[in-house]
Design brief:
The chain is an alpha/beta fold. The chain contains 11 helices and 8 strands. The protein has one domain: TIM Barrel (Alpha-Beta Barrel), CATH 3.20.20. Strand 4, helix 5 and strand 5 form a beta-alpha-beta unit. The longest helix is centred in the C-terminal third of the chain and has 17 residues. The N and C termini lie close together (about 10 Å). The mean pLDDT is about 95.
Length: about 240
């Protein structure tokens, strides 16, 4: 079944709104796993606007011994992040673009414009025994470049579908997933997915992992994180069962 990986960044967003110690994203991750999450995802941004270095260290110390739970570190392709990932050794590194002024990641990483740099960068990640995914738009040229530079996974950006969930946008996601698989890439998906739009995406059985954050953390404010995770898992499971 497609795995559900919970992005816990926005637990830290609430914490940082008051610059205090609560809510604790690590405690949130523990509860998410107890609720059935298959993995935990955290984005250590260069500006540390939500998740911080201490969070990452504590998450790694708790999650990595749990061989049944994935720990994904989202990060920019910088020297600092390469050093952190090489020391932490997460289950998966996902390279994402970053802009200081953005509220959240606005689109996939443009691999074509950075092909040489990223080829070298991925080689260094692999030399440190790291598995690498790249968050990219649903574009065949970008997917092919991901394969060329040595990515293990691609995570297809589902934002356009999430903003306008219709058959056309769904087809774009599905065809991108199938094209990536035809090249030998493993395939994840995420961004903007919620309880209303998840089912058609979850029916794409070639998706290995769905990375979902904001909608689950938002619902958890009202019903608790275990219940929020369980509800999303149920929607994914029922959709997978119809495949």
């Amino acid at each position: 079944m497609t795995k559900l990986c919970i992005n816990i960044d926005h637990i830290a967003t609430v914490r940082e709104a008051r610059k205090t110690t609560e809510p604790d994203p690590v405690s949130g991750a523990i509860l998410a796993v107890e609720g059935g999450a298959d993995g935990i995802t955290a984005h250590l941004r260069e500006d540390r606007r939500h998740i911080n270095d201490r969070d990452i260290l504590l998450l790694a110390s708790y999650l990595l011994p749990l061989t049944s739970v994935l720990f994904t570190l989202e990060m920019a392709a910088t020297e600092e992040m390469l050093d952190i990932a090489s020391k932490i050794k997460p289950s998966l590194v996902t390279l994402v673009p970053e802009k200081r002024q953005e509220l959240t990641t606005e689109g996939g990483l443009n691999l074509i414009d950075q092909k040489k740099y990223l080829t070298d960068y991925l080689q260094r990640l692999h030399e440190n025994n790291l598995t690498v995914s790249i968050f990219i738009n649903a574009n065949k040229d970008q997917i092919k470049t991901a394969k060329d530079i040595g990515a293990d996974f691609v995570e297809i950006h589902t934002g356009p579908y999430a903003e306008n969930p219709n058959e056309k946008e769904l087809l774009v996601v599905r065809e991108s997933i199938l094209f990536a698989r035809s090249l030998g890439l493993k395939t994840n998906a995420g961004h903007g997915l919620n309880y209303k739009n998840i089912k058609p995406i979850a029916k794409i059985e070639e998706i290995e992992q769905l990375h979902i954050g904001h909608s689950i953390i938002s619902k958890s404010v009202l019903v608790g994180i275990k219940t929020a995770v369980q509800e999303m898992k149920s929607l994914i499971f029922s959709s997978n069962s119809l495949c």
